[in-house]
Design brief:
72% helix, 98 residues, mainly alpha
């Protein structure tokens, strides 16, 4: 791999940490007794700003993997996007019990 491909991969790894860190921040805010606003509530499931931005990052990683198809890092970006998507969906599903 060239140095440019390594840089793209490192930036993808940093971007992949976004959804997990945002959800962790939301959980820490609730644990400290703070409130997290809800952007939209659909059938009891609440979309917080953390969840919405995490969903945008996950979808962006999946879109990047589609755009890079045929290259080695595209599979890695797909995995990062799926992990972000799963973390976001779990956070939204968890919001119904709160």
């Amino acid at each position: 791999m060239t140095s440019d491909e390594w840089m793209i991969l490192i930036m993808g790894m940093v971007l992949a940490c976004g959804p997990i860190l945002l959800i962790w921040t939301e959980d820490r805010t609730r644990a400290k007794g703070g409130t997290v606003p809800s952007l939209v509530a659909i059938k009891g499931y609440k979309f917080s700003p953390h969840s919405a931005f995490s969903l945008v990052i996950a979808l962006m990683l999946l879109f990047l993997s589609y755009q890079m198809r045929g290259q080695g890092p595209s599979f890695v970006f797909m995995i990062f996007g799926m992990v972000g998507l799963v973390a976001t969906v779990r956070n939204i599903l968890k919001s119904k019990t709160l």
